[in-house]
Structure to design on (1136 residues):
């Protein structure tokens, strides 16, 4: 038996099946994590290696280069880039989209294991990690303290970090800018040399003394005693009295050659929160964990933990990504609710019957809930993409049910029992329902196959709409007939309609509309040429308008209520100086940005070279400022205006060399629209000169803003050049010498001092007074077999300028000059730049190339173009088979261009740029618009087959199908309306989609209702005169 | 013995069944899906996209005295809504085995 027949005859089973779907859906909904964007695996793997104390060039030569050449052999690799800066090397491997990153990560680890042993001794083991949005910290806290500041690290570790780590889903918690305890042994080199010791020896002695050792067992009587030597230092004071050896009969202790300090490590980072010295605490979640839930748990826990901390320790939130997510999701859910209400109102308006409306509306929750099951099964999240997909679908899922219900009520009105009407009426239309579902699927399904960045965004949208629409089709041919058979009854026609009933109020209105439409249609059929020329003109004008006025952008920027600024001062400047400027900026923010909620400033760099280097630039001359603003609704200025004010202020400080003010969390929003000029070349001076020249040229180009050179200004460094001959005479080589110098300057970590379960480094190095001038360095004594040699004797120390960061791409050094086009399309800007730099005189060995985000943009728009093409072809295929005709689909598709006209007009009226999101709205329109034309053409064909004369068939079809067309269009438009009108958190992102769909659909529906019948008439008339001739030849019936 | 062929819109299936049951007519032969159109009026029932509806046909063989009653019931059924459509045709059964 047919599926609808079974559904009607087994109502209990049908209801139970749908109840099961709803139960599953609600269960999924409860369990689904909430996030802002769908998780995207950017196909990149980073290899992070720290090499403390090395400068950028050293890091490049000793770490980045060997890593690059080894990693270059990994399969599926697209490109290798690296950034080497002081202390840190970051090698980024970008893979082709669709590469299995787990496999790739294993390959990378294998490759690394081959090269690790060749890396310098001081370098830490390379860390491999995959980049994904879940890597971004979800919570950032600032911790300030007064008296307890010195001991805050262990306090926080014990009382905050460890308990928080127990929360389910927390990935890692890191403390930045922590004053770390260290036992420093500051050697006086003169004394040490006098007693004939070296740093290495002292280090070895310390390590040998600071030791606990099991030394066997002793059996005494009945007992067995383990023997243990307890040499470990129990307090740092003991270290001072360690005996180093004898000199001329005297015992030499450590305190004779050095001073021992057990205190806070010298910090080159000054972190302030709202002006107070502070530490930042960064919390990352595990991949796939629920951001909102974790943030909630952390907040709750922190409130408890706060009580256990000393009273002067305060923990404040710098940013909480969950706030923005929750607000956006709430905002969007509200939008969804409004859409639902609108759709209900539209259905009620057109049908005027409560029971029918109820049956139709019931398909909305059922099909939407099935989307949650999909999300749960595919390990996705509730995010703005999935929710906006739902609000797109909400207006479309009722269409199928409407068609089925209409036919059923027609049968009931003819006197059949509801049961039979339900079965047979569904039988009549189920194919049509499935065909129209297929056209929508034809548009949205290709999106699931999109690749790249756009793919991440569209995949979910494609699946969700495909699934909800399919679910709605299934519900329409099972649940709808079943419910109709139970709920619908024949309405007695004799009953006089009430004064304010639907029949009295709305029906006459709709009838008048029908009449008006039929009159218009008749006029158009008689003035075909005028109509065709008229609409073609409109289309052409809109294309012209689009080319001239509509700006394009990649992604709309959302007001996330957060500003981050990276400010760079003169390279090589002391941290103390940097801090002074930071204080000035703090004061400005305090005075001029009242919208601030919290200001966190850090100046200088944490010489631990931790993971933060991935998210922030650091260096003694860098100030990082993060400002969290109050909610959008509580302030008048947008984050962009405030950022602009900050920019203007920063421009007035002479000490600032460069600044970059961003408005977002640095995640997706950071995909700015830049055009990059890439300059390849080994020689720093040459490439820097070329970069400066390019930058100068760019400044002259109209519309080029924010011109930035990626290579930071050179900073002074002292370079030691060793003399090979002199070294070999003394039995030394470069590696030995460099290690020894490192031990004397950076320090040798001799051992660990253990106290109450914590370990602190014992670092042996020269006292600062003996390592702060070139002479001091030259005076460093290198021990050799034949005695001490001064560094000055085997080499010389010179002052040099070196770049603080070295970037490489395709295994070559690279400088990028980037610019943000202002009111100029990216592609246009790229062309202007190409023209400008083509005449430049470039030294040999230097290569230039234009790329950047403009590549991404063109790539994404190209992706969308292909998507549009695939959708068009699929829609054509579906329609051609539905109508069994090559021609009919073309008539129907004539309505598509006007959808784009509508989009362009809507964008112009609302003054929005054409972003990927708006363009996506355009692609979606193909399916929705075509559906209207299908309804119209299908019915016209029907009328023709029922032997109505051509014009009569067209007008009859028009009159009969006007309401269904208006109804489905109205549900879609009104479903989108809340999306287009929303103003809250995050609305900037999806608003363009709402605008473009509403604009496109309104305009194209109006045009479709006129142009499609006109074209139909022209095409069919011609075809029929031809057919007529053919049939004449076959006419054997005539006498 | 007469044969009555009732041809009706399939939406009337239940009513026809009810009639047979009430009249205690046990024997019948049914073609659940048949096509056709009326000689004078009535929409074609072709099961196509253009004419999506279908008819059913039920053949009953019964004693002469019941024929009129069946025809009367059919006529009543038709009167409910002429558009839906039901017709009955009677002819003689010459022989059976």
């Amino acid at each position: 038996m047919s599926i609808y027949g079974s559904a009607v005859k087994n109502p209990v089973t049908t209801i139970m099946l749908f109840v099961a779907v709803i139960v599953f859906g609600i269960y999924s909904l409860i369990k689904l994590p909430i996030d802002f964007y769908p998780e995207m695996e950017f196909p990149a793997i980073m290899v992070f290696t720290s090499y403390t104390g090395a400068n950028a060039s050293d890091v490049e030569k000793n770490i980045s280069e060997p890593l690059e050449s080894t990693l270059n052999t990994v399969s599926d690799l697209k490109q290798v880039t690296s950034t080497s800066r002081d202390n840190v090397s970051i090698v980024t491997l970008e893979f082709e989209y669709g590469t299995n990153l787990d496999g790739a990560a294993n390959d990378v680890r294998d490759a690394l294991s081959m090269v690790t042993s060749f890396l310098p001794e001081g370098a830490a083991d390379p860390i491999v990690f995959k980049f994904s949005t879940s890597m971004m910290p979800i919570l950032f806290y600032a911790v300030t303290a007064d008296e307890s500041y010195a001991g805050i690290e262990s306090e926080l570790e014990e009382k905050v970090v460890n308990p928080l780590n127990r929360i389910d889903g927390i990935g890692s918690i890191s403390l930045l800018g922590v004053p770390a305890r260290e036992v420093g042994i500051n050697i006086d080199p003169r004394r040490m040399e006098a007693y004939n010791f070296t740093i290495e020896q002292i280090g070895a002695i310390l390590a040998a003394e600071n030791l606990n050792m099991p030394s066997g067992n002793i059996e005494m009587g009945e007992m067995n005693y383990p023997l243990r030597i307890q040499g470990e230092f129990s307090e740092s004071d003991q270290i001072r009295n360690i005996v180093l050896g004898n000199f001329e009969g005297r015992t030499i202790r450590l305190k004779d050659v050095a001073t021992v300090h057990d205190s806070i490590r010298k910090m080159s980072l000054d972190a302030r929160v709202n002006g107070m010295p502070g530490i930042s605490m960064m919390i990352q979640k595990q991949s796939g964990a629920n951001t909102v839930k974790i943030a909630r748990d952390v907040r709750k826990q922190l409130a408890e933990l706060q009580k256990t901390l000393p009273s002067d320790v305060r923990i404040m939130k710098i940013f909480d990504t969950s706030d923005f997510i929750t607000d956006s999701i709430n905002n969007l859910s509200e939008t969804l609710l409004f859409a639902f209400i609108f759709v209900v109102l539209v259905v009620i308006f057109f049908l005027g019957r409560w029971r029918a409306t109820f049956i139709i509306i019931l398909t909305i929750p059922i099909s939407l809930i099935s989307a949650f099951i999909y999300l749960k099964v595919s390990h996705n999240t509730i995010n703005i993409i999935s929710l906006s997909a739902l609000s797109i679908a909400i207006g479309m899922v009722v269409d199928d049910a409407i068609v089925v219900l209409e036919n059923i009520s027609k049968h009931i009105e003819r006197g059949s029992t509801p049961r039979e009407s339900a079965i047979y009426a569904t039988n009549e239309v189920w194919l049509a329902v499935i065909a129209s579902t297929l056209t929508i699927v034809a548009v949205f399904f290709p999106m699931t196959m999109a690749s790249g960045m756009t793919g991440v965004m569209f995949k979910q949208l494609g699946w969700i709409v495909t699934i909800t629409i399919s679910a709605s089709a299934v519900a329409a041919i099972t649940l709808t007939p079943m419910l109709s058979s139970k709920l619908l009854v024949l309405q007695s026609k004799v009953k006089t309609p009430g004064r304010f009933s639907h029949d009295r109020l709305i029906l006459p209105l709709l009838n008048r509309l029908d009449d008006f439409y039929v009159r218009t249609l008749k006029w158009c059929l008689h003035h075909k040429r005028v109509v065709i020329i008229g609409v073609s003109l409109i289309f052409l004008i809109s294309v012209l308008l689009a080319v001239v006025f509509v700006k394009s952008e990649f992604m709309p920027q959302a007001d996330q209520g957060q500003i981050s600024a990276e400010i760079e001062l003169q390279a090589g400047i002391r941290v103390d100086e940097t801090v002074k400027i930071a204080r000035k900026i703090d004061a400005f923010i305090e005075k001029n940005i009242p919208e601030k909620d919290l200001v966190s400033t850090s100046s200088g760099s944490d010489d631990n070279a931790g993971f933060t280097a991935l998210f922030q630039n650091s260096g003694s001359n860098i100030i990082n400022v993060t400002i969290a603003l109050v909610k959008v609704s509580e302030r008048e200025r947008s984050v962009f205006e405030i950022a602009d004010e900050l920019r203007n202020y920063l421009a007035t400080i002479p000490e600032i060399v460069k600044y970059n003010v961003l408005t977002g969390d640095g995640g997706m929003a950071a995909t700015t629209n830049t055009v990059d000029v890439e300059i390849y070349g080994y020689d720093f001076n040459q490439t820097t000169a070329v970069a400066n020249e390019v930058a100068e040229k760019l400044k002259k180009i109209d519309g080029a803003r924010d011109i930035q050179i990626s290579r930071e200004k050179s900073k002074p460094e002292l370079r030691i050049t060793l003399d090979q001959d002199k070294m070999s005479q003394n039995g030394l080589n470069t590696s030995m010498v460099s290690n020894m110098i490192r031990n004397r300057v950076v320090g040798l970590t001799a051992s660990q001092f253990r106290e109450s379960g914590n370990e602190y480094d014992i670092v042996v190095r020269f006292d600062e007074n003996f390592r702060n001038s070139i002479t001091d360095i030259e005076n460093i004594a290198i021990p050799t077999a034949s005695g001490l040699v001064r560094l000055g004797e085997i080499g010389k120390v010179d002052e040099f300028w070196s770049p603080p960061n070295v970037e490489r791409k395709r295994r070559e050094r690279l400088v990028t000059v980037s610019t943000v086009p202002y009111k100029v399309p990216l592609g246009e800007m790229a062309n202007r730049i190409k023209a400008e730099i083509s005449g430049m005189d470039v030294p040999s060995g230097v290569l230039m190339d234009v790329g950047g985000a403009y590549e991404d943009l063109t790539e994404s728009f190209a992706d969308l173009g292909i998507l549009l093409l695939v959708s068009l072809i699929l829609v054509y295929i579906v329609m051609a088979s539905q109508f069994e005709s090559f021609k009919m689909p073309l008539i129907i598709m004539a309505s598509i261009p006007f959808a784009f006209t509508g989009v362009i007009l809507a964008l112009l009226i609302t003054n929005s740029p054409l972003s990927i999101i708006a363009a996506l709205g355009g692609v979606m329109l193909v399916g929705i618009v075509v559906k209207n034309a299908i309804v119209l053409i299908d019915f016209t064909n029907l009328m023709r087959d029922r032997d109505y004369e051509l014009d009569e068939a067209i007008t009859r079809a028009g009159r009969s199908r006007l309401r269904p067309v208006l109804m489905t269009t109205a549900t879609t438009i009104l479903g989108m309306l809340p999306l287009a009108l929303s103003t809250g958190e995050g609305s900037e992102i999806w608003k363009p989609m709402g605008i473009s769909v509403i604009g496109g659909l309104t305009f194209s529906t109006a045009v479709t209702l006129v142009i499609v019948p006109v074209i139909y008439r022209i095409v069919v008339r011609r075809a029929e005169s031809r057919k007529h001739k053919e049939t004449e030849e076959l006419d054997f019936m005539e006498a | 013995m007469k044969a009555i062929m009732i041809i009706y819109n399939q939406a009337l299936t239940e009513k026809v069944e009810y009639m047979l049951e009430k009249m205690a007519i046990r024997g019948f032969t049914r073609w659940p899906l048949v096509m056709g159109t009326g000689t004078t009026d009535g929409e074609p029932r072709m099961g196509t996209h253009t004419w999506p509806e279908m008819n059913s046909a039920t053949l009953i063989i019964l004693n002469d005295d019941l024929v009129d009653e069946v025809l009367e019931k059919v006529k009543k059924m038709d009167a409910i809504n002429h558009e839906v459509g039901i017709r009955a045709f009677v002819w003689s059964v010459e022989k059976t085995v």
User: Anything to note?
Assistant: DSSP finds two helices and four strands in chain B.
